[in-house]
Design a protein that fits this description.
The protein is mainly α and 159 residues long. Helix content is 60%, strand content 3%. It is built from 6 helices and 2 strands. A two-stranded antiparallel ribbon has the order 1-2. It starts with a helix and ends in a 6-residue tail after the last helix. The model has no long low-confidence stretch (mean pLDDT 87).
């Protein structure tokens, strides 16, 4: 729920007037538009089909979408987890998924605020995404290893 609230809050970044809008307001004493979702260019350029997200500049709608839908994505993840096994393991894996999802949201927000399009990340963003994937993989491997250890040490109960 926290990730969803933070993701929804990024919508507030889209209503903050840009420097150009503030300059126009000072000159005309009238603000016609406040805010933008595109970072590094005016809104309205051609976007990715289906979403309209900027293909050439940063777009705050990307992390906003990802963060806003965390509640659905993580709930779906938890529902799709196999039911067999210990509840503690399922909680561990769900917490890993939540941490990974939060990190992905943060990387996408940083990318958008840098003015980078989601389809053409910079080298530093690619490194961040690689680190995110590596840490997630390690966490999943540790959880899988603890699952194997749990299976070896748990008593067999015959009913």
């Amino acid at each position: 729920m926290t990730i969803t609230i933070v993701g929804a809050s990024t919508g507030g970044l889209m209503v903050v007037p840009t420097a150009a809008q503030l300059a126009e307001t000072r000159a005309t004493h009238h603000m016609t538009v406040a805010g933008a979702h595109t970072v590094g260019a005016p809104d309205g350029e051609p976007g990715i089909p289906g979403t309209g997200w900027s293909r050439q500049h940063g777009d705050i709608r990307v992390p906003h979408f990802v963060g806003l839908h965390a509640l659905q994505a993580l709930a779906l993840f938890a529902v799709l987890l196999p039911r067999r096994g210990a509840d503690a393991r399922r909680v561990r894996v769900t917490l890993i998924a939540a941490g990974s999802y939060t990190a992905l949201f943060a990387v996408l927000l940083v990318q958008a605020l840098r003015g980078e399009p989601v389809i053409a990340p910079s080298t530093s963003t690619v490194v961040l995404l690689g680190a995110w994937a590596l840490v997630t993989a390690i966490a999943v491997a540790v959880a899988a290893a603890s699952r194997a250890a749990d299976a070896r040490t748990s008593p067999i109960v015959l009913g």
